[in-house]
Write a structure and sequence with these properties.
There is one protein chain. It is built from eleven helices and 21 strands. By secondary structure, it is of the alpha/beta class. The N and C termini lie far apart (about 50 Å).
Length: about 425
């Protein structure tokens, strides 16, 4: 069963469908993967005994550190079969390399085609990509391939440069933009400063990546509200990672990212690796389906989410992934409160005087977490803005971090270091 059809079937049927795909994936790994063949042997697991999704619990997890330490052992095809090399960040300092075959690129295109269909994108629509296609970045390539497979028009502008974005919008008249949501605010600011009537432009929709737009209850978070108040276009969130090679995209109802059952198996586990109940937050663990070059089995993403199994009003019955609450290694214990960086970002993104920011967490002399927020301000007086920010933090997360004002350009350089493909907003110094 191909296409969106499986996403509309009963959950029991979806599970049986996935288990058939799982058995194929396990057999492939047992035959082709040096890493997983060794794992099966060392843990005395008979690959043929892994037949149901519940059987996956017999297997250990795979982490990003293993990907980095044994990178070559994950490759399941000869090097001459590799078409594209992609990298993603690693836990040991150096990036992790992913090798993709021609079949994997077809799968990537198919995944993005399904995801764009979720967002209401149709053949003939014109999408302006405000994301990079270079620097060994998977996402930009994936969007291009998916839109091409869908039959939509593509404008490859790349990230940044608001002037070029508006010149392109004026010339080509796209109906959709694809970008990091906070960049929309920069695009709006440029339009306001240069007399561009952005509300009358051709753009009617933004498909957003890299940053959250919604709260756990699916309402728009402060960043989403700020964009929507300025520019009343449709906003769609997506969630993906290089390791998953799969995207979870919202439909028009904005009730979470839709799961594509033919491409990936999802588990949610607690800190001990046990399954969590429906609706509860846990770490997302994935098993890729149909990947030829470097498939993954029980890979821990580090992302904390919840899964929703009730049918969506759009008619899809497959599971939906909530907005990311945080990452397992980024929990902050601050003044008796457990925080995750997205909650701090949410406050800062909605603060009217804040141009940009950087959140840093470290340990004090007693071993306790301490949080410093460095902000670049649009206006003065500084003392009043700092007090207002502290009040906003207390109202939202009950505690107020230390706040240090810095030149806007200094923060911008920290947000976009050389070779970075995503804005850096959080620095964790606790393990250094």
């Amino acid at each position: 069963m191909r296409g969106a059809a499986i996403e509309y079937r009963p959950l029991e049927e979806i599970k049986l469908f996935q288990e058939e795909k799982l058995r194929e994936a396990i057999a492939y790994l047992a035959l082709r993967s040096p890493f997983y063949r060794r794992l099966f042997r060392e843990h005395r697991v008979d690959p043929g005994a892994i037949r149901r999704i519940e059987d996956l619990r017999r297997l250990p997890f795979t982490g990003k550190e293993s990907l980095q330490r044994y990178n070559d052992d994950f490759l399941c095809v000869p090097r001459e079969r590799v078409i594209d090399y992609i990298t993603t960040s690693g836990t040991l300092g150096d990036p992790v390399t992913f090798a993709m075959t021609d079949k994997d690129l077809d799968r990537l295109a198919y995944n993005e085609k399904l995801s764009f269909l979720c967002t209401g994108t149709r053949p003939g629509d014109v999408v302006q990509l405000m994301t990079t296609l270079d620097k060994r970045f998977m996402a930009g390539l994936a969007y291009f391939l998916g839109l091409r497979a869908l039959g939509a028009g593509i404008i490859r502008v790349g990230n940044g440069i608001p002037e070029l974005q508006w010149d392109t919008i004026r010339r080509v008249r796209p109906d959709t933009i694809m970008c990091v949501p906070s960049f929309i605010l920069h695009v709006i600011k440029y339009a306001e400063e240069h007399g561009i009537d952005y509300r009358a432009s051709s753009v009617k929709k933004a498909v957003c990546i890299g940053e959250g737009l919604r709260e756990a209850d699916f309402s728009l978070n402060l960043l989403g509200q700020r964009v929507k108040e300025k520019w009343d276009i449709a906003l769609y969130s997506t969630y993906a990672s290089t390791e998953m090679a799969t995207t979870f995209a919202e439909c028009e109802h904005g009730r979470g990212g839709h799961h594509h059952p033919e491409l990936i198996i999802c588990e949610l586990v607690d800190e001990r690796g046990n399954p969590v109940a429906e609706g509860e937050v846990g770490e997302l663990v994935v098993t890729t389906l149909g990947v030829e070059g470097m498939p993954l089995l029980r890979f821990k993403t580090g992302d904390l989410v919840s899964m929703h199994l009730d049918p969506c009003p759009c008619g899809r019955t497959s599971a939906r992934v909530s907005p990311v609450v945080g990452r397992t290694g980024h929990a902050i214990k601050f003044k008796g409160t457990t925080l995750y960086p997205p909650a701090l970002f949410d406050v800062l993104d909605n603060a009217p005087h804040v141009e940009n920011y950087l959140v840093e967490v470290d340990r004090d002399d007693n071993g306790n977490d301490c949080v410093t927020v460095r902000v670049g301000l649009r206006s003065l007086p500084v003392d009043d803005v700092v007090k207002e920010l502290k009040d906003r933090f207390r109202a939202k997360v009950r505690v107020a971090p230390d706040i240090v004002t810095c030149p806007v350009e200094e923060i911008r350089r920290a947000n976009f270091p050389a070779m970075s493909r995503k804005p850096v907003k959080f620095i964790d110094k606790r393990e250094r």
